[in-house]
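User: For a benchmark we're assembling, each entry needs the component sequences followed by a predicted structure for the full assembly. Here are entry 17's components. Please fill in the structure.
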Amino acid sequence: MAITILKGTVVSAPALGRLDVTENGYLVAEDGVISGVFPVLPERYAGVPVEDLGNALILQSFADLHLHAPQYPMLGTGMDLPLLDWLNTYTFPTEARFADPDYARAVYRQLARELVENGTTRVCMFSSLHTEATLILMDELEKAGVTGYVGKVNMDRNGGENLQETTEVSIRETLRWLEACGDFRHVKPILTPRFTPSCTDELMAFLGKLAAERDLPVQSHLSENRAEVDWVGQLHPDCPQYWETYAKFGMWNSRTVMAHCVWCDERERRAIRDAGVTVVHCADSNQNLCSGVAPIRAMLNEGIKVALGSDIAGGDHLSMFDVTAASIRASKARRVLDDWQTDFLTVSEGWYLATSAGASYFGEQPGFAAGNPLHAIVLDDSQLPQPRPLTAAERLERCVYRRQRNAVRTVWSAGRKVFSAE
Amino acid sequence: MAITILKGTVVSAPALGRLDVTENGYLVAEDGVISGVFPVLPERYAGVPVEDLGNALILQSFADLHLHAPQYPMLGTGMDLPLLDWLNTYTFPTEARFADPDYARAVYRQLARELVENGTTRVCMFSSLHTEATLILMDELEKAGVTGYVGKVNMDRNGGENLQETTEVSIRETLRWLEACGDFRHVKPILTPRFTPSCTDELMAFLGKLAAERDLPVQSHLSENRAEVDWVGQLHPDCPQYWETYAKFGMWNSRTVMAHCVWCDERERRAIRDAGVTVVHCADSNQNLCSGVAPIRAMLNEGIKVALGSDIAGGDHLSMFDVTAASIRASKARRVLDDWQTDFLTVSEGWYLATSAGASYFGEQPGFAAGNPLHAIVLDDSQLPQPRPLTAAERLERCVYRRQRNAVRTVWSAGRKVFSAE
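Assistant: Structure for entry 17:
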């Protein structure tokens, strides 16, 4: 049996708002599966080599539950338009380039590497509508050590000039893509109607049926922007609310992931909670595109599953440290919007959402629970000025706010060491 | 005569919302004073060595018009409280440590270096109430190459247990501090009543008189937080508005700098504009402390002078790239608050506020205008992924959003090269 023992300041998020800290603690995994965090190394591991990381922080790695791989080339640019104009002006032309497999290979290799270097080891990701490029993306993620779900986008209406399929092609390519996905071990397919305005009823019906037949999860967008919500209402006059355009085609269950959910009212939120749908909060993107501020505190109070997404490239950062800080900031904007009546997210709450909450979508228990696959990062904050001694919680807070390149020194994903800065 | 010629992609902000780009351009300074930006090197400079920076961006350096030097040790921590509680719990105890000159020396040396490394060459800065530490701060800034104003804080009421002076001591120490400031060439004193609740009328009257007698500028805080505004109203029932507590003591004129101004209504804004007071927008801090979102667009439309401040440690970033991005984000939060009726700040507008607008407080013309002292940074964005060719404006936008450590390669301040990463 292969045993991994990491020694350092082990910090994990076992519940919303709680941090467990074990100074000079031991995080142990057997054959890539966590057996526990121990203040003193249990006798049964005597003689096993210990990777002593000194004072470094040993943290759960991140889960990024919503991002668009083919928008990576435009990351950090072009954010002066609202959602629907932004899609047509910047996004669709950028995605159209992924018809070229060589281009896709080069970009996705870079993306996969950057994800791992930033400590993101689980994703729920949109590709473009291109089958080849989607398979290349999955291959590059698999090679780099990123786990999770990737979806070939379905889009048979309202696309760009070079970014639309016929219904027939969309169906055929989806089946062809699923055929070819079988070889990936850590990266699995997820059905991905881009959003309701992008898919005809015929295509939606096909995808819903396919999800049921093959037991596949579904990801999409929900109630991101007011103009979008109005548009969906016009497209589906039979549906009182946006979520029902997914539900009526059988794509509304506990494996469904819905990004944004900025404009979900109580009724829509009840439907989310009752079905066990996971909401992905994309704070940076919602602010950059002036979509609004999602009512995350209300969702958490109501028992809705909420995780975080970078949503590149509506979001401007791939690093989930930034995404965590952005979520905290957004919660403070929400507090101001709600006339100071809503509690903001604390750092430990933000950290939980960025790690344990996302990981739970992949079947893990919160924190470094025994039985979880080892997903962890080692964080070196010694480059930051140290004008006074800090607690582990303060160090974590500072890393969230003041993250810096190269602070992530080592990354484990699904039990494997997939990155080492040395 | 010493001539500096920098060749590269020269980008400057000559007006709000405008970027001047000169690809393969020459930025020329004679004895540290800019003579111009030229697409072709004028004949009179033939034979003068050219510092060829290749494709790098040559940009104006930053002006940070509001930050608290003694809060640097707590940067990125402790932001879970509103302003007045935050001051008492975190800030005042942190500042109290600067009674120790050795501690001050070590922290301020680090701060000065970090400012320069991040391309901030002009500041308007709060010290603590300690005279020795303030002089040490000025000395460290001067040595590091940071120019601008520093103020010994005055605070004879409502401080912390170890952070308050008697009125008599405050007056005496202010005079002693001013005596000792004479030797600094690039760092000058600015009178600094912490904020109205911190200063008795007697102390305010003294400071106003001193400002007039010695022709000294004044900096303070204005209308940051609703509870603070109410408190000031109770302390000065004779003043209809907060600004009048400064005006009635003669500290309200075109050299006055007021940080935050989140809650300034039309009447208070008119007073700001009519007096030519400079407003410092501290977007990150206002969001972190849930103070609110300052009406920056209204201020700009009304002709108010607005610059940016990092406001460490209410703000969580020293880098003005981040502060620029934070200001843009805050303007989008403001847009949402105002039901989408207010225009957000574009990147080029944010860039202007972070550079030219702040520099104008120090007497400079906008952009790389002839006659300005050379304040410039060389920015290397080649470490960022380059999946497609970008315009200079896109490169700048991306650096604002995706800044990274070590991207600032060289810094000139007041004509001197003060930092070089090589």
